[in-house]
Model the fold of this input.
Amino acid sequence: MAENERFDAIIIGAGIIGANVGFELSKAGYRTLNIDKLPAAGYGSTANTCAIIRCHYSTWAGVAMAYESLFYWRNWGDYLEADDERGLARYIECGGVYMGNEERYTDKVLPLFDEIGVPYEIWSTDTLQERIPGIDIGRHSPPKRADDEHFFDEPTGQLQSVVYSSAAGYITDPQLATHNLQRAAEAKGGEFRFNTAVAGIGTEGGRLTGVELADGTYIEAPIVVNVAGPHSFVINQMAGVADAMNIKTRALRHEVHHVPQPDRLDFEKDGFMVGDDDIGTYFRPEVGGNLLIGSQDPECDPQEWIEDPDEFDRELTDDQWRTQVFRLARRLPELGIPNTKKGIVDLYDVSDDWIPIYDRTDLDGFYLAIGTSGNQFKNASVAGYCMAELIQRVEAGHDHDADPVKVTQRYSGLELDMGAYSRNRAINRDSSFSVLG
Ligand SMILES: Cc1cc2nc3c(=O)[nH]c(=O)nc-3n(C[C@H](O)[C@H](O)[C@H](O)COP(=O)(O)OP(=O)(O)OC[C@H]3O[C@@H](n4cnc5c(N)ncnc54)[C@H](O)[C@@H]3O)c2cc1C
Done:
């Protein structure tokens, strides 16, 4: 009988975060293996991410992590220390405009920006209209569905001001960014196996021993990291760790829509990423003169929790399409309403408070980088670095549950208390409980 293969660490998943955990661990000297049931890196939920980079989160840790992530994306090639025959993903730092909830910005977000050093300006609505010609400054909140009888009511007032931050943008090709990380990990000795599903987690005497594949093969490793995205809860059930966790994860279906920008705008050249709390929507430039529109999960939007992440409807619905496009048309009245629906459907891996879990588990050797709640693409490298630090310290005997690991960040020097991402934290009431984190 052939001997079992053996690695220092197995990472379940090769999305942007899984590939980044693989890279950071291989860089730290571990012999790593990323296993993914899909055919290539970044083919899971990462493939359909909006890949927006922005710092306006609701907690100190949220803003700090996003701020640190900017340094990685700005220095992507240097960070990778490796070439990719397909070229490198690009970070377009077009800047971001946040509008529609002055109270939230003034009370919550801007004090965090001041403390951490995120650059921003307050724009008058005149400046907004100069920078985005044709934009409407009416106040329409609360966000409504397109079939709400009050959807087309006159605005109840006007926006007072908006926040602009130069520290925001998007990644042009998230799948390519993941492939870049794969090549970077491989250059450090990391391995990737695709079209390979993990079907079980092996344990002995309360310690993890490796993974069992769907074809029955067993691969040994003292460390396994669950980075399975929307399948995270399935893997946790396999490992028998789910019940003991205070914070759980679930898969949530989400639609993103693409529409041609109004003729007067050239968003790819001089547009912004826009977060609009007033209409419950965000949008950003998309290649080919399009705008990409996502929902900020306002209360009126139905939430479709998915029990089996391998089985969900990937067709856009008329209802959500109309709602999103009509919302944007209120803000950009020159927007044409296309006859055909375009966009994508995918799953968020949502935690109970929409803040991720970057942690160990009660099963020694089994770690989690999950619950990314539609807002952690940008933070993949920070998460990868923090996970590698956390794993090394826990494996060296540190009691992370009693005394949470603190990680001094590579570029900003900020200190992240990993207790903020614990599986056993109390639900964080400062969270927006939405994709905003
Ligand atoms: C529509 C949408 C829009 C988003 N927009 C943004 C945004 O603008 N900005 C932002 O920062 N974030 C955004 N996000 C969130 C971000 O994309 C995710 O947080 C990130 O891509 C998650 O990466 P991951 O590696 O954890 O998971 P994934 O990319 O989902 O990778 C998990 C991998 O695990 C594999 N896997 C699962 N089960 C098994 C198994 N049993 N065996 C082997 N492999 C398995 C899957 O095949 C998959 O490839 C968005 C997400 C979505 C869905």
Summary: The pocket of flavin-adenine dinucleotide is lined by residues 12-18, 35-38, 43-46, 48-52, 197-198, 227-231, 254, 256, 346-348, 372, 374-378 (CB under 6 Å). The CA atoms of residues 300 and 398 lie 45 Å apart. The longest helix spans residues 380-395. The domain at 92-169+250-351 is CATH 3.30.9.10 (D-Amino Acid Oxidase; Chain A, domain 2).
